[in-house]
From TrEMBL, chains A, B:
UniProt GO molecular function: FAD binding; oxidoreductase activity
Keyword flag Kinase: no
Domain FAD-binding PCMH-type positions: 38-218
Entry protein name: FAD linked oxidase domain protein
InterPro entries: FAD-bd_oxidored_4_C, FAD-bd_PCMH, FAD-bd_PCMH-like_sf, FAD-bd_PCMH_sub1, FAD-bd_PCMH_sub2, FAD-linked_Oxase-like_C, FAD-linked_OxidoTrans_Type4, Oxid_FAD_bind_N
Gene3D superfamilies, per database record: 3.30.465.10, 3.30.70.2190, 3.30.70.2740, Uridine Diphospho-n-acetylenolpyruvylglucosamine Reductase, domain 2, Vanillyl-alcohol Oxidase, Chain A, domain 4
Position of the signal peptide: none
Keyword Membrane assigned: no
Cofactor(s) the protein needs: FAD
The organism's taxonomic lineage, starting at the top: Bacteria, Thermotogati, Thermotogota, Thermotogae, Kosmotogales
Length: 466, 466
């Protein structure tokens, strides 16, 4: 672990006062994120900056004293991006949580990174607008974390990932400069696309201190369909057909298997129709015209029934829709209560290959004697295959998880997919990166990292080792 | 100019045979693009590769002999990206023009870079799908050029620029490796977002040899409105109001001033309603339900009338709509016939600032005694302010254009905009880049360029000088 020099501590104390924390219980909390199978690592100190200037000072000092800095949002990440593997400084952006400007004329909002994503959605909603990003963690994750990971979620199908909504970033570079990328303009080809390079770079290329997001007109009507199927296979086989045949773009097309639903219903203490069905699909459609939305969901419902759905439930009022989504969005939390030792993956494959992915993953689990459940964003090919320890011994779990993971990643690759669709590489998947990227690609990643961060001081050890 | 060594010529001749051209009339054609005010520069040779392997060999030889390589699509660029400023090799991708795969199941299409963009649109249309990119040059520009420039066009408002549709790229790196970035997966956060770094890098970071694009369900109904206004001011003032008040996202919101329309109608030899009006807006809405689309366009038509439109014409059949778009898409061509000496800009500002941009640009033109016309993508804030020489002397034009340009770029910046929304920096705007990017940003661009291209061999002298 890296020692934090007395002199450096004094300089930081002068800037941060009691927003600098050294107490063990603080450090403990900031040693981990929500990645179930990763061990934490204690930081030397935690800082709570309020301004980009403070962050700039930290980065300059960190470069001078060669101490690593790990930026952190809400700590809800699922690949270890916010864990400080060699100690040093954790820079928590929680207190930079102001909404700076709601610009209705330009349909843009500018926020600090510590704003909870849901706050943005609620504010937009009050003005008849929407923010198109919708990670399942939206009531706990911060928009800064969403940007760092290029978070996906439930509406990527129609609206794209977090990155598609970001038009400007204020960033403190690892070398301390405060830089403004982009602006409230829809189109910009002035130089390389640095904004999309920064988005999803997992806090390794810069610390985002302001984010400008585009908002969109809110569709007047949204309807969610719930379609239970006898088996995972039948539900998943219906997905590509729904996408191609429906002639419309659903805003969501989600999938939950029996284990996911049953443990979540138990966790939420609620009843769910057909909770013993093999799997359910949730399909949401939206629009400004009631008849148009009805036409869409009726067509989609018919396709579900043709493909073997046991029933199609229509949730056309806000209350029922929210209840349905509550189940979908609580799966990860239920999992962490009932199966705290598990490994949640987010492999992503071409939409038409999802049936092969799920069948292959089931075979892998069976081969290695592991329990498996699956849920996720079936419409965009991003499924949370999750291996669960259950009552297996610690030794068994440790010995069998890694080979199963490698086979899953290789399967995703062979189907034309990748090892992470929305959770990122971080610490968790770093050693598996060569399964999907070749030597030249890894050389370019390392080269770009060095250009931004010559001393490898900002979030080192994530994505790649230099 | 860089000399091409005899030995290098022999090696290339062996690979390319009669797909290597040295004849003066060939070289002449490949010395320029469609940027009106840029002088050409003769290449030493032009090569027509058919495979990524051939391109890889060229890059390896170019690095060995230190000869610059300038990739080129259809040569329709508007910032000099395809001009070889110091001679060397021009690599024309025209013959790599195959549609490799139409994957209906995944709603993706994979093409070579030399495919004309319109061919993709036509093929998608035959399958009830659309490609969301729609540059005005779509019947002459290639998809490879669109990717290199991150081309915008008429539908960015709703569908985003070219980059939002690209999910995989096969690229020959400047150092010769053939690399596959991305795949037919909607979500991918496996490492840095290299795809969006390559898109819009103007052929300075790699030569794209395959492109996979996502297609979308084709809306069943499209209606275009044409709204003439008394003055540019009245038309432009209506734009932000249309965007905020309509409650829907038009697929296009275009603007043409009187000079643009009159010269284009003369060029096409057609009549146009209210052709003496100060300016026209074209607004297109689309959807799957006839009533919903009617509701949308009626609301938009009402807002136009409230904002002072002289009339609102509805083009609700394909024929009339195509005629309308023909005018819009032919403005640049008409300009090059009637005003061959001109300077077409594509500054981009926040939507609500468009009125200030146009008024400011008019003042700049007046101050410098220049003729000005304007047209473009008003809904997304990207307007083609165009200075025209008219009957001014060559000396006058040369003396007054540059200060006017600088003032225009500064105005765009001060309104929160940038100097290029879709045409790129290339040769044309390179020296103006510091108006909008600071030292750190330019340092990062140069650093990234060096990581990809250590010998500065691929399209050198574009965007920045190393």
């Amino acid at each position: 672990m890296i020692e934090i020099q007395e002199e450096l501590l004094n300089s930081l104390k002068e800037i941060f006062g009691d927003r600098m924390k050294l107490e063990r219980d603080f450090l403990e909390k900031y040693s981990r994120d929500e990645t179930a199978e990763l061990e934490g690592s204690m930081p030397g100190i935690v800082l709570f900056p309020l301004t980009p200037e403070e962050i700039s000072s930290v980065m300059k000092l960190a470069n001078q004293y060669k101490v690593p800095v790990t930026p952190r949002g809400a700590g809800t990440g699922l690949s270890g991006g916010a864990i400080p593997p060699s100690g040093g400084i954790v820079l928590s952006l929680e207190k930079m949580n102001r909404i700076i400007e709601f610009d209705e004329e330009n349909m843009m909002i500018t926020v600090e990174p510590g704003v909870i994503t849901n706050e943005i959605q609620k504010l937009a909603d009050r003005h008849g607008l929407i923010y198109g990003g919708d990670p399942c963690s939206s009531d706990s994750s911060t928009i800064g974390g969403n940007v760092a990971e290029n978070a996906g979620g439930n509406k990527v199908l129609k609206y794209g990932p977090t990155g598609y909504h970001v038009y400007a970033l204020e960033v403190v570079l690892p070398t301390g400069e405060i830089v403004q990328f982009g602006g409230k303009r829809i189109k910009d080809v002035t130089g390389f696309d640095m904004i999309h390079l920064l988005i999803g770079s997992e806090g390794t290329l810069g610390i985002v201190t302001k984010i400008t997001l585009r908002l969109l007109p809110k569709p007047k009507y949204s309807v969610a369909l719930l379609a239970p199927f006898e088996s995972v296979e039948k539900a998943i086989d219906a997905v590509p057909k729904l996408m191609v045949k429906s002639g419309t773009m659903p805003s969501s097309l989600e999938f939950m298997d029996r284990s996911s639903i049953q443990s979540t219903c138990k966790f939420l203490n609620i009843e769910f129709p057909y909770s013993d069905a093999g799997a359910h699909l949730i399909i949401e459609v939206e629009g400004n015209n009631k008849t148009a939305v009805s036409d869409d969901y009726e067509r989609i419902g018919d396709i579900c029934l043709e493909e073997g759905a046991l029933e199609v439930f229509v949730a056309d009022n806000r209350n029922t829709r929210e209840k349905l989504w509550k189940v979908r969005k609580s799966i990860a939390e239920a999992l962490s209560v009932y199966s705290p030792v598990h490994c949640m993956e987010d492999v992503s494959v071409p939409m038409a290959r999802i049936p092969e992915l799920i069948k292959g993953a089931e075979k892998i689990a069976e081969k290695h004697g592991l329990e498996m459940l699956s849920f996720g964003h079936a419409g965009d090919g991003n499924v949370h295959v999750t291996f669960v320890k259950g009552d297996r011994t610690e030794e068994y779990w440790k010995a069998h998880l890694e080979p199963a993971l490698i086979e899953l990643y290789e399967l995703a690759r062979d189907l034309g997919g990748c090892i992470s669709g929305e959770h990122g590489i971080g610490l968790k998947r770093k050693k598996y990166l060569p399964i999907i990227l070749d030597e030249s690609q890894i050389r370019l990643i390392k080269g770009i990292k060095r250009i931004f961060d010559p001393n490898n001081i900002l979030n080192p050890g994530k994505i790649v080792d230099l």
